Structure formats: structure tokens, C-alpha cells
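Researcher: We're teaching a course module on how sequence relates to structure. For the next exercise, students receive a sequence and then see the predicted structure as C-alpha cells, so they can try to spot secondary structure elements on their own. Here is the exercise chain.
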Amino acid sequence: MIKTYLKKYFVTAMGAMAQGLFATLLIGTIINTLGKYTGLAFLTEMASFASAATGMAIGVAIAISLKSDMLVVLCSAVVGSMGYSIGAQINETLHYTAGPAGAFFAVIIACEVARFVSKKTKVDILVTPLVTIFVGYGVSKLLSPGIAYVMYYLGDFINTTTEWHPFIMGIIIAVVVGMILTLPISSAAICAMIGITSLAGGAATVGCCAQMVGFAAMSFRENGVSGLVSQGLGTSMLQMGNICKNPKIWIPPTVASAVCGPLATMLFKLKCDGVSAGMGTCGLVGPLGIISSTDNSVLMWVGIILLCIVLPAAISLALGELFRKIGWIKEGDLKLEV
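Model: And here is the predicted structure for the students to work with:
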């Protein structure tokens, strides 16, 4: 029972939240970056509309993933917006919203409560929206300020600690976020929740890239070009089944993450913000996020090419071949199911 609920809320619902983030905040960031480099004002305007709809999209996405009735789904747009926007006054000048985390909890609770009344009365058109929105508002007012405090200080701790100790934090963040990307959990959603930024975001980005590019390169002999594309530009989560069978195949990409993380924080000073930091090379969102957040320079471009593509591929390939020779990886261990 516990496993069922954990999967329902922290795998399925969180994955849906990541899609909501991708369709609004993330795509808005990409469009805004294009507007910045092309000078096209309409792109910047489009990006602002996309970003403004983030809470609503998260609400709808989560409600759909929970198989809620249509009225509940539509009202979840309102609940998501409330949970996302309500927050706390951190200091005299900063009001920090609960963001994706606030929307996540508000929508889940509102949807589950609404399930008890949806399609149960003859005036469902009134009862269901009222219950969903009232519960969503109450949860948002009750939880979102606390969530805002926790997310702000957690993100501030991670971001500040990375500035103070770029070497060790570069390793930790790159490895942890990279592994979360490969697990059936949304690394993009987690990065957005805690508000990871700057050097910490850069470390997270290359850590994710290392997992995706590493698995793609290491498994090329088994999966060919289709596997290279599906993992390198899609997700390393495709290898999760193989990891469960032979956890040793996870070591090479994870070592690549550990190597690239501190190089990103100490040498190349790569930066990335929020949801982009948890996307890796998926649709090249991670590198685009670095371009958007890091000062444009030759060093930045060299860092992106080296840490997001070349080193992860080289390290994972080299270790993969070593592991094959000593018998830790056998033929077919990295084969993806078609």
C-alpha cells in the first residue's frame, strides 16, 4: 500500500509536474533565450506568457495523472496557480513563493478530497468546483508559506555552500542530481522546487548530461544510433531496468558526473537556473540553460562541449570497456528493450 502511494504521488504525479514545468517555465526559458540572442521582442513576450501559466499547467498535469474527473482537472488550474503563487515574506524586500512544490501539494490534496464529491450529487457543476477550489485555497494558505521558507533556505544553503566549497559540492550535486535524473523521479521538478541556481545549477546540469551521454555512448554497441539518440537526447531512465539487473553499469556515468561537476564549478564556472539544471541533454535543454545563465565567452562554450558531451562519453566508454574486460559488464547488460 505504501509503495503504491509513493509511486502515485512521487513518481507519477511528480513526473506530470515536470511535464507541466516543461510546457511553460522551461519552454519559456528557451524561447526567452532565443529572444535574447536574436533581439526579437515577440519571443520575449511569448516567454512571459508561458512562464505566467506555470502554476496552472502544473495543476492540470497533476490532476490528469491522478485520473481526476474533468471538472476537478479544470479547477486544478486554479489550485495550481494558488499553490504556486502563495508564499512567505523572507525579509523586508523578498517575498518568496512556494513555486512548484506549493502547487504540487495543494493540487494533490485538493484532487483527493474532490474525489469524494465529484459526480456524487445532482449539482455537481457547482459542488465539485467549489470543493476543489476551497480545499486548494485552504491548503495553499496553510502549507505554501512553510514550503516557501523550506525551499528558499534549502536552495540558499545549496547555492551558497557551492560558492564556498565548489570542489566538494560540485561532486555531490553532480552525482546526486545526475542519479536522480536516471531514477524514475523528476530531477527537473526537484531542481525547480529548491530553486537551484548559479554554480550549483551548473554542476547539476553537467551531472545530468554525464548520465545521459555516458549511457548513450557506453551502450552504443548494443543499441546503435536509435539508443544513442533516445538516451543522449531523451533520458537515461531507459536504463533503469538494466541497472536493477546489474547495478555496476551505473558506475561509469556516475564517475563521469563526479569528474565533470567540480570542473564546472571551479574551472569553467558554468551556471544554470531552476528546471533547466535538471534536464541534462534532453532536447539540449541543459546546455541551453547554461548559455542563458552564464556570461557568454569562449570558456563557456568549451566547458559546454567538454563537460556536457566529450568527457562524459570518453570516461563512460573507457570505464565501460574496462568493466567488460573484467566481467563486471556482460554482453547485453546495456541492451534496451525495443
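Model: If you want an answer key for the exercise: The chain has a mean pLDDT of 92. Strands lie at 87-89, 95-97.
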